[in-house]
């Protein structure tokens, strides 16, 4: 029986080469798209799954109000929690970000991008595999250091690194362990130190939110009690104390300054795909993009399956007599279903194999697109592939098989089947669904393109085309601010350098510092602190809308005068803030200017209230200066930067390389993920249209070939070609319109949700819908009319000679 089925299958492939090829190609494209999405999905969900402690480790997050959730904590929280909570096993303070610095061994220097500092029990939270030493002793004291296997190889080659001395930050450290990073993790450092202990000691007892905090619980179920204890610690040791100092009740204090900070716990397995501030330096995955990619890939596979079902049910007309004969000679309904499902399984197998070839060939481009290193392997992936194979067979094979098995033998053997309505509604419904999916993709592609275009063209409130930010590393025993003043003086002598200034911020980065100030009855106004030197705002093209810039001619501008932005003025509820006094950090400051709002973060964020103060003011630590900004003349810019490089290496820092970013390009990196989404939508849109073309062409061909005798009779009776074309294409235009109407509803609501993610966004206009409709209509008429014109040129006698 199986041999007979295979022979019949081969026969039908030979007699329907084009439609078999379209079926295989359509399914393989859909399966390949889903494979790509699954590889990305698996990779993003693999973070920290190797960690045996993952279900007990949590990061402490703090909701400070106004939609701001910080991943940093004060030094006071964890020691108090350890005393009062029996549910806590241990805690570990960390720095949330990597630092970039040089490490030296016997004169050999290596620049490391991922230097991490944490408390000495860090390796109990992330128990990497150690190839030298062990996690318990690797960070035994402040002079201990642990290296990744790759870092050890770069520094020591084949030499055993254990107990060797390396120089880092002008200090000598002893290598106590070498670990292997062979799994995806939220922390994947090149080097780990315990230098954070020095900072924790300086901030001991303070409520400054500066450090990441990991907790290891004894049981997962203890999260609720831990959160309650953290909130109680804040209320008892911060809120009530502050209220007493101001001489008010707790309720009055809350009314003046807002609700108390509320803690939450973020589990380690959920960290990677958390949308918000990340407590770990590897950062967040793009959950929105991941979901979009997976959803669209499933939709394309569904379109491919719909296409297959359409072609299969249409092709069943040619096999009606075969089914009728098989039933007459005793074949049961189950046997016929099994045969057609078997044929679908073979088609699907060919499609899966072709899809794997497509993926393997395209994977380098896909990895480049996502900045990933995905590979086609892993037990999980092969299980998922088998599952896709089975689902496609069941969805694409069972429905046509049942449809075919219901043919009535006597009717089809009499030749009446071609005039039967059986299956027409199914095929028409599938065709309408194809049009609806194509509508969604065309509209989506257009709106995503418009939003990204809007983001690229929007006036950001600053101009960074000729401005470079140079990383300015501190040096042991030297004042960072005094070094900066010398750089400013000397760099202005370099030809092509038009201006030099600095700020304790970097536009387009995630660096930010927050405080709160009070103005009249408005207490606890949350504000972004911006330390600036004279001239930096003017250099960046950031305008003043009221008052003036900070100016070195006024000595008070370095002590008690500040600028605020327009967003801050709104929160102050003051029409004219010039010369008004605010209270900040217990000291009075006078507002002398209002800065025009500019986008510091990406356009998905609202512009925050900001306060600008000179870097020598008491509210700012001028030694935190770590960027110097240079304005470069557009003429011979490459030579100017080369001269700056030479100056920097000889006069400023011979050990750390001259590293710079153009401010506008640094900010533009925020758009990269959205440009990826735009390119993805465009690519998938092309794929959807291609699959839709396959299906429409094949279905139109089958449909019109069934009507060849009717067309011959009409031509004999004098019907003109244009009348025949109109008659043959009319139903497809109707299906196109119905599919478009169905498709615009999910397109509008889903894209509206996507746009709501942005603080600065376009409004959905009618134009993308008009473009989608005209594109779909043009595509439909082009394919259908081309096929219809072909069938109107038939030889009339050929189809009438037996009548």
Annotate the secondary structure layout:
Layout: H1 2-15, H2 17-45, E1 57-65, E2 68-70, H3 77-84, E3 88-94, E4 99-105, E5 108-117, H4 122-125, E6 129-133, E7 144-148, H5 149-156, E8 165-168, E9 171-180, E10 191-193, H6 196-202, E11 212-217, H7 223-246, H8 250-257, E12 262-267, H9 268-271, H10 287-315, H11 320-328, H12 333-370, H13 379-405, H14 409-413, H15 424-457, E13 467-471, H16 480-491, E14 497-501, E15 514-519, E16 522-532, H17 536-539, E17 544-547, E18 561-565, H18 566-572, E19 581-584, E20 587-595, E21 610-614, E22 627-632, H19 637-652, E23 660-662, H20 663-668, H21 672-705, H22 708-716, H23 721-755, H24 767-791, H25 796-800
Parallel strand pairs: 5-10, 7-9, 16-21, 18-20
Antiparallel strand pairs: 1-2, 1-11, 1-12, 3-11, 4-5, 4-8, 6-9, 7-10, 8-9, 13-22, 13-23, 14-22, 15-16, 15-19, 17-20, 18-21, 19-20
Helix pairs in contact: 2-10, 2-12, 2-13, 2-21, 3-7, 7-8, 10-13, 10-15, 10-21, 12-13, 15-21, 15-23, 15-24, 21-24, 23-24
How would you explain this protein's 3D organization?
With 803 residues, the protein is of the alpha+beta class. It has four domains: 186 residues, no CATH class; 185 residues, no CATH class; 161 residues, no CATH class; 200 residues, no CATH class. The strands form four sheets. It has a six-stranded mixed barrel. Strands 15-16-21-18-20-19 form a six-stranded mixed barrel. The mean pLDDT is 86.
Strand order of the largest sheet: 4-5-10-7-9-8
Nearest-angstrom radius of gyration?
A: 34 Å
Helix content: 40-55%
Principal-axis shape: elongated
**Poorly predicted runs:** none
* Helix count from the secondary structure assignment: 25
How far is the N terminus from the C terminus?
39 Å
Overall structural class, as computed from helix and strand content, comes to alpha+beta
Biggest sheet overview: 6 strands, mixed, barrel
User: How many β-strands, per DSSP?
Assistant: 23
Report the mean per-residue pLDDT as an integer.
Answer: 86
Strand content: 15-25%
């Amino acid at each position: 029986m199986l041999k007979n089925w295979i022979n019949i299958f081969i026969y039908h492939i030979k007699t329907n080469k084009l439609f078999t090829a379209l079926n295989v190609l359509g399914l393989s494209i859909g399966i390949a798209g889903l494979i790509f999405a699954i590889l990305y999905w698996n990779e993003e969900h693999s973070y920290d799954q190797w960690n045996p402690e993952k279900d007990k480790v949590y990061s402490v997050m703090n909701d400070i109000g106004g939609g701001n959730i910080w991943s940093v904590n004060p030094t006071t929280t964890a020691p108090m929690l350890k005393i009062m909570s029996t549910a806590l096993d241990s805690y570990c303070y960390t720095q949330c970000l990597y630092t970039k610095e040089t490490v030296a061994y016997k004169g050999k220097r290596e620049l490391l991008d991922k230097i991490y500092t944490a408390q000495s029990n860090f390796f109990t939270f992330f128990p990497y595999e150690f190839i030298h030493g062990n996690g318990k002793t690797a960070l035994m004291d402040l002079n201990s250091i642990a290296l990744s296997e790759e870092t050890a190889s770069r520094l020591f080659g084949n030499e055993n690194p254990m107990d060797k001395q390396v120089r880092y930050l002008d200090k000598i450290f002893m290598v106590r362990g070498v670990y292997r990073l062979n799994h995806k993790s939220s922390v994947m450092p090149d080097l780990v130190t315990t230098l954070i202990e020095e900072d924790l000691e300086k901030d001991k007892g303070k409520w400054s939110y500066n450090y990441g905090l990991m907790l290891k619980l004894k049981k997962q179920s203890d999260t609720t009690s831990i959160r309650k204890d953290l909130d109680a610690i804040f209320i008892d040791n911060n809120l009530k104390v502050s209220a007493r100092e101001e001489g008010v009740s707790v309720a009055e204090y809350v009314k003046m300054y807002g609700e108390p900070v509320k803690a939450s716990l973020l589990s380690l397995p959920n960290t990677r795909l958390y949308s918000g501030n990340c407590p770990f330096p590897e950062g967040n995955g793009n959950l929105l993009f991941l979901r979009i990619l997976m959803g669209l890939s499933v939709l394309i596979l569904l379109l491919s399956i719909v296409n297959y079902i359409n072609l299969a049910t249409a092709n069943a007309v040619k096999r009606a007599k075969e089914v009728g004969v098989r039933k007459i000679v005793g074949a049961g309904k189950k046997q016929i279903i099994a045969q057609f499902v078997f044929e679908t399984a073979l088609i699907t197998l060919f499609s899966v194999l072709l899809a794997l070839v497509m993926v393997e060939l395209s994977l380098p481009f896909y990895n480049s697109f996502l900045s990933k290193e995905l590979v086609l392997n892993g037990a999980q992936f092969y299980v998922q592939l088998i599952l896709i194979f089975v689902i496609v067979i069941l969805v694409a094979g069972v429905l046509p098989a049942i449809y075919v098995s219901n043919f009535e033998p006597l009717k089809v053997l009499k030749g009446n089947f071609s005039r039967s309505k059986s299956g027409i509604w199914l095929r028409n419904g599938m065709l309408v669904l194809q049009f609806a999916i194509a509508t969604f993709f065309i509209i989506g592609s257009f709106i995503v393109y418009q939003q990204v275009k809007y983001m690229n063209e929007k006036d950001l409130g600053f101009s960074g085309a000729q401005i470079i930010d140079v990383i300015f590393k501190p040096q042991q025993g030297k004042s960072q601010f005094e070094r900066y003043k010398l750089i400013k003086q000397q760099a202005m002598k370099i030809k092509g350098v038009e201006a030099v200034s600095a700020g304790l911020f970097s536009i387009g980065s995630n660096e930010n510092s927050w405080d709160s100030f009070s103005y009249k009855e408005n207490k606890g106004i949350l504000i972004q602190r911006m330390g600036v030197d004279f001239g930096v705002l003017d250099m960046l093209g950031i305008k003043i809308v009221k008052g003036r810039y900070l100016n070195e001619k006024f000595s008070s501008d370095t002590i008690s005068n500040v600028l605020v932005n327009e967003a801050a003025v709104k929160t102050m509820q003051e029409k004219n803030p010039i010369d008004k006094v605010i209270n900040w950090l217990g000291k009075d400051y006078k507002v002398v200017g209002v800065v025009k709002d500019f986008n510091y973060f990406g356009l998905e964020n609202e512009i925050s209230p900001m306060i600008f103060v000179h870097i020598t003011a008491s509210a700012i630590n001028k030694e935190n200066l770590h960027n110097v900004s240079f304005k470069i003349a557009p003429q011979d810019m490459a030579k100017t930067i080369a001269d700056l490089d030479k100056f920097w290496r000889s006069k400023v820092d011979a050990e750390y390389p001259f590293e710079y970013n153009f401010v506008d390009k640094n900010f533009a990196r925020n758009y990269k993920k959205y440009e990826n989404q735009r390119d993805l939508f465009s690519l998938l849109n092309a794929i959807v249209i291609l699959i839709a073309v396959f299906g429409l062409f094949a279905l139109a061909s089958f449909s019109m070939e069934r009507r060849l005798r009717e067309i011959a009779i009409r031509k004999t009776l004098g019907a003109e070609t244009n009348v025949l074309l109109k008659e043959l294409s009319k139903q497809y235009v109707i299906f196109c319109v119905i599919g478009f109407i169905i498709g615009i509803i999910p397109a509008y609501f889903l894209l509206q949700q996507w746009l709501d993610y942005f603080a600065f966004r376009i409004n959905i206009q009618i134009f993308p819908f008009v473009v989608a409709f005209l594109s779909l209509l043009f595509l439909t008429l082009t394919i259908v009319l081309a096929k219809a014109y072909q069938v109107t040129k038939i030889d009339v006698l050929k189809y009438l000679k037996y009548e």
